[in-house]
Write a structure and sequence with these properties.
heterodimer; A: alpha/beta; Rossmann fold; B: alpha+beta; three-stranded antiparallel beta sheet; elongated
Chain lengths: ~230, ~80
């Protein structure tokens, strides 16, 4: 299958994502330039982390209007698989493909550290390679990852089981200490109603090989590839 | 005709403003006891070439809702100056 990794000016996890998908056998991985309006027949599109357009205005707000994003939005609305990681998640929020918005971290600091995620959902093809309740280790690295949604949106996300990942401690419990950014309900990742668009702040592509400290992130890429095949 | 418009963007009531809270604590430490709340935002100063103030309001309103503000977390106010 063919995977497209979008490159915006300021993306810096594009090659990590490219490499992660190369670790899953049987993939062709291509880059999609932000000025292009062709997603080259990809079966899944990745919006990688970084600081697209310098994070000017708000994270993701300018990238959302780039030519490639018009095609990515059409692709997602047609049921295509899209994964947004970190800055990619922020772009998905700005584009309206996922609900809510990002605020500055409650600490006001850029936070770069290992965190533990609890898998909250695995009953859709996108996430079927994961197991609900599993704990995954991977890093976060962001200054604006404090997920916010108004009370009505939040209650819909929770009641419809659309929270995909939460920050937890080593016992799998949501605590203030294990939450790196103040995100509401410890939310680290969400999915759209249709089940084809996922956004997450942590970096699974930086946790795909044991020599990097964790290979837990690879499970998500394997799961996405199996779903999009 | 040239117009100037100021667009003030500020977090909605009820949205956590950690920057505002931090600035508020700093002000309290400096002895500004009477300042009980700080909200942060930003102002965009735009120059617009348009035929009427009504047109300016329409253009700037579209720009604000489409890009300058994120309506999920922010409100905006427009002030048009000739």
């Amino acid at each position: 299958m063919k995977i497209g990794v979008v490159i915006f000016p300021g993306s810096n996890c594009d090659y990590d994502a490219y490499q992660a998908f190369n670790l899953v056998k049987g993939n062709e991985v291509v880059y999609l330039w932000h000025r292009s309006d062709d997603i080259q027949g990809c079966d899944a599109v990745i919006l990688p982390g970084g600081f697209s357009y310098g994070d000017y205005l708000r994270s993701g707000s300018i990238a959302r209007f780039s030519p490639i994003m018009k095609k990515v939005i059409d692709f997602a609305e047609g049921g295509g698989y899209v994964l947004g990681i970190c800055n990619g998640f922020q772009i998905l929020l700005e584009s309206g493909l996922l609900p809510g918005a990002m605020l500055k971290n409650s600490s006001l600091r850029f936070v770069c550290r290992e965190i533990i995620l609890r898998v909250e959902k695995s009953d859709v093809p996108f996430l079927s390679g994961l197991t609900k309740g599993d704990l995954l280790s991977m890093p976060v690295a962001h200054g604006e990852g404090n997920y916010y949604a108004d009370p009505a949106t939040l209650s819909e996300l929770e009641s419809r089981g659309r929270v995909v990942f939460r920050y937890v401690d080593k016992n799998g419990v949501v605590t203030a200490e294990s939450n790196p950014n103040g995100s509401i309900n410890g939310i680290a990742g969400i999915i759209n109603e249709r089940g084809n668009v996922v956004g997450m702040m942590p970096h699974p592509e930086r946790a795909c090989e044991n020599m990097l400290g964790s290979a837990d992130g690879l499970k998500l890429f394997e799961s996405l590839c199996a779903a999009a095949r | 005709m040239k117009f100037q418009a100021d667009v003030q963007v500020i977090l909605k009531d009820g949205v956590l403003d950690p920057q505002g809270q931090t600035i508020g604590r700093a002000l309290a430490e400096l002895g500004f006891d009477s300042i009980i709340r700080v909200n942060t935002g930003r102002i965009f100063k735009l120059e617009i070439d348009a035929e009427s103030e009504a047109m300016v309001r329409e253009i700037v309103g579209n720009a604000a809702s489409k890009l300058l503000a994120n309506p999920v977390i922010e409100d905006y106010k427009i002030e048009v100056i000739r």
